[in-house]
Design a protein that fits this description.
This protein is α/β, with parallel strands linked by helices. The chain has eleven helices and seven strands.
Length: 259
């Protein structure tokens, strides 16, 4: 079983979209996937349930915030989706206060890893995919400390690479206490090859020595927005779309890297 988180301190990079669609694509390959929504915006949760149901889960306290607060095993918080091979732990807007709540806990960097311990031991899933918020605090450190790999989505735009050096520095700090987590790759998203930004982004990324960059890139595609409007992933909503095919290709690339 492999645990992968999606992290980037810059918002709008495509973390939630890529996490949800990679999950759907891996499921299409026959992999059993657990998704964990770690962002207060709840976009990962909204990719599989409508807003009414997501809010109901939050009100029932069946969300990641409650599990972290009580330092409980996450098993009882898992929700089944309509997608074959995909389960999820939903988020809540209460995650806005998680930094303060974690601060007073003993070994606060490893609270999330403790919550995941039994799930990992059972090994019922092939992949655990975790969506993180666009911050560099104790909660994201928790996520990284509980992961085997991190995927960093980077938007092909003038500001897409902004803060990437901070992410590398943060990962270095995490490696001081969790040396096993490593960068699986940079995923370039929102690509429009008609613009020079894509070429500039790729040239900059490849200028870094030994920086893993996925061969697969994700193009801008209106089908993604239509899928989000339908509380779905584009892989499920319109499998014939360009972006759906790219996420399926990414799934094969990720699976190959994790073998």
């Amino acid at each position: 079983m492999v645990t992968i988180c999606f992290a980037n301190n810059k918002g709008g990079s495509g973390k939630s979209t890529s996490c949800s669609n990679l999950g759907s694509a891996l499921a299409k390959l026959g992999k059993k996937v657990l998704l964990i929504d770690g962002d207060m915006q709840m976009n990962l949760s909204l990719s599989f349930f409508d807003e009414e149901k997501v809010l109901a889960f939050a009100q029932e306290e069946q969300n990641i915030y409650r599990a972290l607060l009580e330092e409980e095993d996450l098993t009882s918080y898992i929700k089944h989706t309509d997608d074959e091979n995909i389960d999820i732990v939903v988020s809540t807007t209460l995650m806005s206060s998680i930094e303060m709540d974690l601060f007073s806990k003993w070994q606060r960097e490893f609270v999330f890893r403790k919550c995941l311990k039994k799930i990992k031991k059972k090994a019922e899933y092939d992949f655990i995919l975790i969506d993180s918020p666009p911050t560099l605090g104790c909660w994201v450190m928790n996520i990284l400390c509980a992961s085997d790999y991190v995927i960093m989505p980077v938007e092909a735009s003038p500001w897409g690479l902004f803060g990437l050096a901070n992410m590398f520095d943060f990962l270095d700090k995490v490696n001081e206490i969790a040396p096993d987590v490593s960068l699986l790759g940079i995923l370039v998203t929102k690509v429009d090859e008609r613009k020079n930004y894509y070429k500039q982004t790729m040239e900059t990324l490849h200028s870094y020595e030994n920086l893993p960059v996925f061969d697969t890139v994700i193009h801008t595609d209106s089908a993604i927005e239509w899928a989000q409007d339908a509380s779905s992933t584009v892989v499920n909503f319109k499998r014939s779309s360009r972006s759906a095919k790219e996420y399926l290709k990414l799934a094969k690339e990720v699976d190959g890297k994790c073998q």
